Amino acid sequence: MTSAPHLVVFTGSGISAESGIQTFRASDGLWEDHPVEEVATPQGWRQDPERVLAFYNQRREQIRRAKPNAAHKALAALEQDGFQVSVITQNIDDLHERAGSRQVLHLHGEILKARSSVDARLRYPLAKGGIALGDVCDKGSQLRPDVVWFGEAVPLFEEACELVSQADFLLVVGTSLAVMPAASLLSYIDYDTPCALVDPDADELSPPGVLAINTTAGEGVPALVHQWRKQGNLILP
Q: Could you read off the pLDDT of 7-34 as tens digits, one per residue?
């Protein structure tokens, strides 16, 4: 339905944290015992690929055990009601898809896929298990996690910018708006496009002109979606 209101949702680690997935910056986060340089950079990969693979295999199993929460499900329900919902996520999990969302753009890749270390076009789903040293692509090169590491380009950024520019409403959920270039997405909305941030620290994080909704994703997103489904439009209550 091309005339349906178009909600573009930009999600970060805060929405996945409510499903039990530890966040990058949390004090008890999974990354805490692993310096970023060791497990999430091209340099770390070159120095010790086995350690990087083990780290992502651990995260992959955690994500497989996690389940979509109320925020993921609410966004999928809005789409099922006929709204156009495009999700842009910084998260590498598949919780939006498992909740039922069909239009999901993963800015930073997908942990449940492997890809060639010499040809990024060669991607392979990981229905189970992980990646071991010696697992190779069709070109004979070592497989790596299909994620964007620090210091690497974000291939889908331009596509995300185009989506944001088409939004009737931009909803930001669970992100500190600190990781670039993703944080600059807000600059691509039309000047009169409404934008809201749902986060427990929204007052501190919201840029000028962005409505701060100080609550968790699991509470704030379903409340907004309930109102929008009732109204039939993307208007703030």
A: 999 999 899 999 988 765 544 444 556 7
Q: Please give the model's pTM, rounded to 2 decimal places.
A: 0.91
Q: Measured at the alpha carbon of residue 57, what is the angle toward residues 52 and 62, in degrees to the nearest 5?
A: 130
Binding-site residue positions for substrate: 56, 59
Report residue 45: phi and psi, to 5°: -65, -45
Gap between the Cα atoms of 221 and 124, Å rounded: 32
218 CA to centre of own chain: 16
In the Cβ-directed half-sphere of 190, how many Cα atoms lie within 13 Å? 10
Is 187 within 8 Å of 212 (Cβ atoms)? Answer: no
* Catalytic site positions: 108
Which residues are part of a known binding site?
56, 59, 90-93, 174-176, 217
86-124 pLDDT, tens digit each: 999 999 999 999 999 999 999 999 999 999 999 999 999
